[in-house]
Amino acid sequence: MMQFTFDAPTIIRTKRDGGVLSDAAIDWVIDGYTHGRVADEQMSALLMAIFLRGMTKPEIVRWTTAMVNSGERMDFTDLRRDGKPLALVDKHSTGGVGDKITIPLVPIVMACGGAVPQAAGRGLGHTGGTLDKLESIPGFSAELSKARIRQQLCDLGAAIFAAGELAPADRKIYALRDVTGTTESLPLIASSVMSKKIAEGTKALVLDCKVGSGAFLDTEAESRELARTMVELGAAEGLVTRALLTDMETPLGRTVGNAVEVAESLEVLAGGGPADVVELTLALAAEMLDAAGIDGTDPAQTLKDGTAMDRFRKLVATQGGDLEQPLPIGPHSETVTAPRSGTMESIDAMAVGLAVWRLGAGRSVPGGRVQSGAGLRIHRRPGEPVAAGEPLFTLYTETPEQFQAALAELDGGFSIGDEPPPQRPLIIDRITSGD
Ligand code: URA
């Protein structure tokens, strides 16, 4: 029985003044918020204090554990396919722009023999969410019961689901962070990602930790620290956990938004798609298969021979989605054209993420509806030649009054130069426990 010896104002003041929260205070506040005894405005104030003051490692560990303990923890170790335990493995990104990688990645890993229990998230701040993207497929549902998840893992090798009763504290805090300017915090990102992933019952985990203007954290050093923190949190829970540090200075691929990113993912599954999306998807697939102890399979082959596409179609159909119906696209469009000729030099991921959020692809109030058809198409990526007057970006929305704000975000968010820009490596580093 939990003793109610704490109160929210004292906990908020402790963190506001740079103090360290005790384990018991953390357990109390997370439990209280999950069950409605701590109000949204109190948790908002505490999140802002954490954002400004940070947390010690022991505080992060306890905050994560308290979030895991706020709900149930799934266990799939009893499941068998062909008499063998499932090779349970998952991936999570710290949030990017145009980051549709989970969509082609999950079916590749399925086709290679992995089993992916993917508790996916919604959009956060200027970054998109896998659930919002997949829900743009007519009929697709991520509200799966535990029995359905277990069944799908055995029969198909994957389930993509809303975290639901897993880490419900994260569900509430995630939604609050999204609308209170408290997303960009190392302890809050690490605990949010890892509480879901620990609770979802995966045995191996690969993290895609973003670096660059479109990442939540400002510097490579901070992203590296985030990756290390998450890898340690996973290892301490017995998960084989690794992270790739990857570039998020430029959006991934040529689309940013909801349905437009699903369409691009289908291109990748059909064996095409933008080179950067394919490269990162295959690198993460290789890491996942290695972490799960699966060898002798070639992820790239599953794109060539159509087995990954086949798995994706089955997964979507099982979750109610109808890929025969057209994907939605915002009925209003606006095109940005090149002011001069030259070479596309840079496209700022943050500017594009904010523009797409303004178009209606993300939320500004908790639980708000996102527009499935809101998005942006990139016609010229960095390094590609540009002629004056050519289209650079096309923006789509249901609400044309949002164009002005979206265009203002893009203003200054790209540059055209005379020379091709230096090539940036997409995969910057790999972090494993002990690094
Ligand atoms: N993904 C999450 O699940 N949480 C975050 O805070 C950021 C990315």
TrEMBL record:
Key words, A-Z: Glycosyltransferase, Transferase
PROSITE patterns from the UniProt entry: THYMID_PHOSPHORYLASE
Glycosyltransferase as UniProt keyword: yes
Superkingdom in the source lineage: Bacteria
GO cellular component: cytosol
InterPro entries according to UniProt: Glycosyl_Trfase_fam3 (IPR000312), Glycosyl_Trfase_fam3_N_dom (IPR017459), Glycosyl_Trfase_fam3_N_dom_sf (IPR036320), Nuc_phospho_transferase (IPR035902), PYNP-like_C_sf (IPR036566), PYNP_C (IPR013102), Pyrmidine_PPas_bac/euk (IPR018090), Pyrmidine_PPase_CS (IPR017872)
GO terms, molecular function: 1,4-alpha-oligoglucan phosphorylase activity; thymidine phosphorylase activity
Annotated Pyrimidine nucleoside phosphorylase C-terminal domain residues: 343-417
GO BP annotation list: pyrimidine nucleobase metabolic process; pyrimidine nucleoside metabolic process
Complex and partners: Homodimer.
Annotated family: Belongs to the thymidine/pyrimidine-nucleoside phosphorylase family.
Identification of the protein by name: Thymidine phosphorylase
Upper classification of the organism: Bacteria, Bacillati, Actinomycetota, Actinomycetes, Mycobacteriales
